[in-house]
Amino acid sequence: MTNLSKMDLSNLAPGHQTDQPQSHHGDAAAAIANQLYVHGPASRRELAESLQLSLPTVDRALRELMRRQLIEPGPSRPSTGGRRAYAYAFANSNHVAIGISANRGSLHIRAVNLAGEVSDAIDRVIPQYSGNAYWQRVGNIVNDFADATERHATIIATACAAPGILTPDGGMVEFDLATASPDASLRTLIQTLHRPCTLIRQAEARATAQLWADRTIDDALCIYLDHMVSGAVIVDGAVNSGPNRCNGTIAHMTLVPDGLECRCGRRGCMDAYCSPTTLTEDGESLPGFFSVLEQGEPNHRRRLDAWMDHLAQAIAAARSVICGDVILGGQIAQYLDDADIADIARRVRERMPFGMDRFAVHAAMPGDEQAAIGAAQSCVGAYVASLGLDPVARFHSAIP
Ligand SMILES: [Zn+2]
């Protein structure tokens, strides 16, 4: 099984559009589209040669792809006899997906084209961030953004990164771990939106963004150390959701039996030991904690030490299932320097008797907007797979 077909299976969002050509001519069109997508602009003659197709077949396919706005005239190039040959290019930006991330008052909206690149963006800070009025306001901002986007591109799908646990069909938030109850707020958002919107678990959206930025990632455990800890898994170069859409949700794995009380109502969860709130005391902010730590305060050093031990223990336990690299992101991760990351890796090594030959801890790409980018990219991934396009090959061919 190739990476692409696996990605196709794991990234298929409900309601995504399929535009898979059916006929033999359609096969030629898909092959030509992928050739241009992966390797960049080419003339009709170059396409015929590289794909072993007749010129009439190439011409028919090019007309079909032009009609579907998947390709556009590219730069002309020198040909035999000194004449300029007309070239075709894949039209990355005629189709976009919209991704939304609304996390504790910071709203990010991104339009992402078929190359996985951000083509439009809005960031807003909304201080009052709960209740139906807030979610209606978010919905209206997204509607305005989508209306503006639609003037120059076709919107293939919209997805919102959701911090809770989703229902297995991905339709709604089943469990909001912050309140340990079903979450109704995103329902208001979806009702306000003028276009269909699917949900993607926030950690998976971030892992998707990581993957589009670096296709060399094979198997990895992604851990996001935010106000609420979350995680996702990458298997064979694709985000793997699992049948319940909660693969990698390690935050509520029991780390210390009968340990500290967790927000989920149980005791000893990883979240109770590894979230930023375990580092700070008496209303201290996270930047405040790290600046006092830098001044050599022993109490802060002890707290960070205990936090690293708990995190390493959680990573060691999780790596007994997915024994790959670890990608650390989220609010705390941005304060960790290379020495801290190496320290965490060392603590993991101490706790694992094997599986350490190929092991590295990497810092995730920073920024809340990564969830919005990844949400859109997960729609783009499903869409380009349905067209027979290979974004992994495109990454490795490194066309600008
Ligand atoms: Zn818990």
Helices and strands in order, then pairings?
Blueprint: H1 3-11, H2 24-39, E1 42-43, H3 44-51, H4 55-67, E2 71-73, E3 77-78, E4 84-85, E5 87-90, E6 95-103, E7 106-113, E8 118-125, H5 131-149, E9 154-162, E10 165-166, E11 173-175, H6 185-192, E12 198-201, H7 202-213, E13 220-225, E14 229-235, E15 238-239, H8 271-274, H9 286-294, H10 298-319, E16 325-329, H11 338-351, E17 361-363, H12 369-386, H13 391-397
Parallel strand pairs: 6-9, 9-12, 13-16, 16-17
Antiparallel strand pairs: 1-5, 2-5, 3-4, 6-7, 7-8, 10-11, 13-14, 14-15
Bound molecules: zinc ion.
Structure description:
It holds the Pfam family ROK. Belongs to the ROK (NagC/XylR) family. Residues 1-26 are annotated as: Disordered. The protein is α/β, with parallel strands linked by helices. It has three domains: 3-93 and 389-397, Orthogonal Bundle (Arc Repressor Mutant, subunit A), CATH 1.10.10.10; 94-207 and 368-381, 2-Layer Sandwich (Nucleotidyltransferase, domain 5); 216-363, ATPase, nucleotide binding domain (Nucleotidyltransferase, domain 5), CATH 3.30.420. The protein is built from 13 helices and 17 strands. It has helices at 3-11, 24-39, 44-51, 55-67, 131-149, 185-192, 202-213, 271-274, 286-294, 298-319, 338-351, 369-386, 391-397; strands spanning 42-43, 71-73, 77-78, 84-85, 87-90, 95-103, 106-113, 118-125, 154-162, 165-166, 173-175, 198-201, 220-225, 229-235, 238-239, 325-329, 361-363. The strands form five sheets. Strands 8-7-6-9-12 form a five-stranded mixed sheet, with helices on both faces. Strand 6 (95-103) and strand 7 (106-113) form a beta hairpin. It is globular and about 75 Å long. The protein binds zinc ion (ZN). Zinc ion is lined by residues 252, 262, 264, 266, 269, 271.
